[in-house]
């Protein structure tokens, strides 16, 4: 089964897309009536799209195919992975400061930073949009990010 057909992926795709529209006044993918099609479109988007939950040490709950390709993790490896591991140890202060700023203000679209893939290779991400996720129906709290610009270092 394709990852985008899993119930959590379908549900998170809707929440990610709706919350992006709430903060940025545009959808990541145009809404369609078929929730599985929306999930497929977001999963196959040319944008890198990720989301983590709102725990004390947040873990990834969503990573589309582009994110999996960039970081080198499979769907199964990404889900449950602490999101702090997406950045090198010397980048944690910068990453945490940005996450806290977005938690307080709701969103930002001006972030750039250094990240590290599964093999330890560093890359710079630019023009990252990050926004808060909140869904009263499921109780989900967290943050999602998207970008389409990176450079390997």
Topology diagram in text:
Blueprint: H1 7-24, H2 35-43, E1 48-53, E2 60-63, H3 65-71, H4 75-78, H5 92-105, E3 107-116, E4 122-135, E5 140-147, E6 149-152
Antiparallel strand pairs: 1-2, 1-5, 3-4, 4-5, 4-6
Helix pairs in contact: 1-2
Percent helix: 25-40%
Structural class by sheet pairing and helices = alpha+beta
Oligomeric status: single chain
Strand portion:
25-35%
**Mean of the pLDDT scores?**
95
Which spans have pLDDT < 50 for at least 5 consecutive residues? Answer: none
The biggest beta sheet is recorded as: 6 strands, antiparallel
The helix count comes to: 5
Rough outline: globular
Indicate the radius of gyration in whole angstroms. Answer: 14 Å
Number of strands: 6
The N- to C-terminal Cα distance equals 35 Å
Q: Encode the helix/strand succession as letters.
A: HHEEHHHEEEE
Short description:
The chain has five helices and six strands; from the N terminus they run ααββαααββββ.
């Amino acid at each position: 089964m394709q990852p985008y057909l899993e119930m959590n992926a379908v549900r998170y795709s809707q929440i990610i897309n709706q919350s992006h529209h709430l903060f940025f006044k545009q959808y990541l993918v145009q809404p369609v009536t078929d929730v599985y099609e929306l999930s497929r479109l977001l999963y196959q988007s040319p944008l890198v799209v990720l989301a983590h939950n709102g725990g004390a040490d947040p873990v990834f709950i969503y990573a589309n195919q582009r994110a999996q390709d960039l970081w080198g993790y499979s769907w199964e490896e990404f889900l449950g992975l602490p999101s702090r591991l997406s950045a090198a140890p010397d980048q944690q202060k910068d990453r945490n400061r940005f996450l806290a700023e977005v938690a307080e203000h709701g969103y930002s679209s001006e972030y750039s930073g250094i990240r590290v893939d599964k093999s330890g290779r560093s890359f710079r991400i630019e023009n990252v949009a990050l926004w808060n996720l909140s869904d009263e129906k499921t109780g989900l709290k967290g943050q999602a990010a998207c970008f389409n610009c990176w450079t390997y270092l």
